[in-house]
Amino acid sequence: MQGEAGQVRALRTRVYVDGYNFYYGALKGTRYKWLDLYALFKHQILPSILVEQDGLPAQSELLPEAIQYFTATIIESAAKAADSVSSQARYHTALRKLHDGTIRIVEGYYSLTKARAPAIDDADPKRPPRECDRVPIWKLEEKQSDVNLALHAYHDAMTGQIDQAVIVSNDTDLVPALRMIRENTGAMIGLVVPTRDHERRPNADLTKYCHWVRHHLKEQELAASQLPRVVPGGRSPTIKPDSWYPHPDLFQRALQLATKVRGGRSAAFRWFEQPSPYLGNARPLDLMETREGALRVVAYMEDWLAQQPGQEP
């Protein structure tokens, strides 16, 4: 979208998120999985990018269905945790409730098959695969997500729906799509590498087709872009999974203790979210961001219960 000379131009923008690449690059093992994707890109990532078009400054203008999120439902038999499937479903529901018409979730699927593959030789890890014994394995693959992302981005650029495609991935399978967008359309391409603090370098085959590259996500950006703990709507609210809090083992212990004293989960969370004079006027929920703080909260409640059973901390 062109503007008058001297004015900032608005670039009609959509963000195409490779969910698998994003999770394993930026979220796995962190406290940030309950992530508000729309808030992250609208308020954190895109405002940080300085863009020019035809020598004039430009800024991103997010379209309807601005965030295109490409993912697949976890297969329960291959999940790493008992609540992985239900937690993912809660997250998708929360995004749809909070950002109806703004975030579009496009689902592929996982394929789980039996296969045989060369096993790494423990005695000689550098031994080439062709010389290693083949062993039976379960082969888990995500299907269609990268193809869906490529097709949606290319379609939107070819049909003139967008002035800018922001690709959130570091997967070289997307190189042909980026090359075709660059060669056949006038759309700008931005690349956001889903990693924290330069843990992964941008792939050179991707970056050569991009107008700009964001090399990493900052911890404070992820922290500032979390969904509310309770997302209202529908027949019942959608609540952040307990296992998605920092240090879930200690969080579960703290929640059990607080629930016992306060008489219910809702009351326990109300206590978590209020400053406590017995904890230096800090909120227990804030203290539990660190392992040391979580241990302090648990120790305080255990000591209280031991000395004053039945009283409120």
TrEMBL record:
Entries under InterPro entries matching the protein: NYN, Xre/MbcA/ParS-like_toxin-bd
Keywords: Plasmid
Keyword ATP-binding: no
Pfam family, one: Xre_MbcA_ParS_C
Domain Antitoxin Xre/MbcA/ParS-like toxin-binding: 261-300
The organism's place on the tree of life at top rank: Bacteria
Domain NYN: 141-198
This protein's name: 6-hydroxy-3-succinoylpyridine hydroxylase
